[in-house]
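Thread: sanity check for a docking pose with flavin mononucleotide

Original post by kr_44:
Hi all, I'm comparing my docking run against an independent structure prediction. Below are the sequence and the ligand SMILES. Could someone generate the full complex and paste the structure tokens? I mainly care about where the ligand ends up relative to the chain.
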Amino acid sequence: MKILGISCSPRKQGNTELLLGEALQGAQGEGAEVELYSVSGKTIEQCDGCGTCWETGECHIKDDMQELYKKLLEADGIIFGTPVYFYAMAAQTKTVIDRTMALNRPERSLANKVGGIVAVAGSLGLIDAVKDLYFYIVTRRMLPANYVAAYGGAKGDVKKLEKGMKAARDLGRQMVQLVAKKFEYPAEFMAPPIAYGTHTF
Ligand SMILES: Cc1cc2nc3c(=O)[nH]c(=O)nc-3n(C[C@H](O)[C@H](O)[C@H](O)COP(=O)(O)O)c2cc1C
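Reply from moderator J.T.:
Ran it for you. Here is the predicted complex with flavin mononucleotide included:
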């Protein structure tokens, strides 16, 4: 079983990475193979909306996202880690999730993987980041696990949060427990994503 943590902070060894590291330790303690992937220093371009991936399942942008696609597909559980930038998930996080539009085919999708969230903010905006990531996880047909939302401004601040660090370890453990359940959505849920949303007729 593989659990992948993606740190979408551009700040190396910042609070997002620290909490994710803790979550992954929790998962490892339960026997999972774990990996922490940081987007810091990577080149991940924005989705250009070309629509090719809808036809091919492949993104034409040949950048570091290509290796992340492989890691995402190999993982059984994925923890999305984001800092809050201006009351929302950081643009780096949004860029990664936009690019996962290419994982939209039955044999190349995030469906049935377990999804967890780690979010860090100095003061305001945690719930906005968490709810947007939850919505993403649910509409990708992933199974949502818990989230950890923690306060930390300066690098390393979250280390002082005893309960926050424990919550992260618990999230990691719970990810493993959820993956072990081998949850699968019924086939009907795998149809094109038209069964949810706002209907105008
Ligand atoms: C561009 C930018 C915007 C930010 N906006 C917010 C914000 O809206 N609300 C907040 O509470 N903290 C904000 N912060 C603070 C970060 O969320 C905080 O420092 C966090 O610990 C960063 O995580 P990291 O260490 O993983 O990079 C902002 C930081 C930056 C660099």
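Residues 9, 11, 14-16, 83-87, 120-125, 152-153, 155 surround flavin mononucleotide (CB under 6 Å). Hope that helps with the comparison, let us know if your pose agrees.
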